[in-house]
Amino acid sequence: MNHHATDAHTLAAAYALGALENDERDAFDAHLHSCEACRQEATEFQATAARLAAAVSQPPPASTKTQVMAAIDGVRQLPPRIPTHAATPARGGRLRRKAVPLALAAVVAAAALGGVAVWQAQNGHDLEQQARRAQQQLDALNAVLAAPDARTVHGKTANGALTTVVTSDRRNKAVFTAANLPAPAPGKTYQLWLDHDGTMRPAGLIDRDGTVELAGDPARAGAVGLTLEPAGGSPQPTTEPLLLMTLPT
Questions:
Q1: CB distance 207 to 184 below 8 Å
Q2: pLDDT digit string (tens) for the chain, length 249 residues
Q3: Which of 28, 74, 186, 222 is the most buried (most CB within 10 A)?
């Protein structure tokens, strides 16, 4: 991914995702020393990518290492791959901000599909059903993240959680991600809201770090809120909002 030097300010997303070549990475590292805006942007992209990946990843079962080690002796090692000609440099192009949600979608897909592979390698029908549901949820999230008109906004809750919302007017969908969200007290859950001209409408529940698609009509909402509610949620907020973040326009 080769870029002209004048594109330095557009490389924050590629830098955060490790998509720059060595010389580009070194040049961007030097650029970061003098550009506060790019430092902030790169940090936010790295945090968002990590949260999205962690939200859909699945820890491998305890038996995985034993199974892999037992199978090693029966796997034939392939010979080294020797290139017959020099690789043709890929065509470069400006990395636009609108490409960032697609890059983040790739991070989510890589993490989630790894989890699906572990599921499918385990114990049959029930786990396959779980994997299928997880894949469907992933597809819904990726549809928003990869939308051509996807826009992103970052925030922080009153109890210290970092949040990201990605919206798509074309799909009329929004995705909410939280990291470092403290565990709710027993009998409590976090509830999401969409603010429609001062009226808070339920938009789903989230009880831990993760990524969820907001329910409702985000195209007509001006902000997303987060409150702590009784388990199962409430028809209207019963506590002060931990977050009230204006949706990207």
A1: yes
A2: 444 444 566 677 677 767 678 888 888 888 888 888 778 777 777 666 665 655 555 566 666 667 666 666 665 656 666 655 544 444 444 444 444 454 555 555 555 554 545 544 555 556 666 667 667 777 777 777 777 888 888 889 999 888 888 888 888 999 898 888 899 999 999 999 999 999 999 999 998 888 889 999 998 999 999 999 999 999 999 999 999 999 877
A3: 28
Amino acid at 19: A
Per the structure block, which two tokens stand in for 76?
A: 């034939």
Q: Identify whether residues 50 and 101 lie together within a single domain.
A: yes
In a domain, 102, yes or no: yes
Shared domain for 114 and 211, answered yes or no, is no
| Whether 180 contacts 173, CB under 8 Å | no
Q: Which of 111, 145, 179 is the C-terminal boundary of a domain?
A: 145
Range of the domain at 125: 5-58+96-145
Asked if residue 18 and residue 113 are part of one domain, the reply reads yes
Residues 34 and 106 in one domain: yes
Q: Compute the distance between CA of residue 151 and CA of residue 166 in angstroms, rounded to an integer.
A: 5
**Residue 174: left if φ>0, alpha if ψ -120 to 50, beta else—which one?**
beta
* Cα dihedral 225, 228, 233, 235 in deg (nearest 10): -50
Residue 82 lies in a domain: no
Total domains in the chain come to: 2
Q: Are residues 136 and 53 in the same domain?
A: yes
Residue 214 forms beta bridges with which residues?
Answer: none
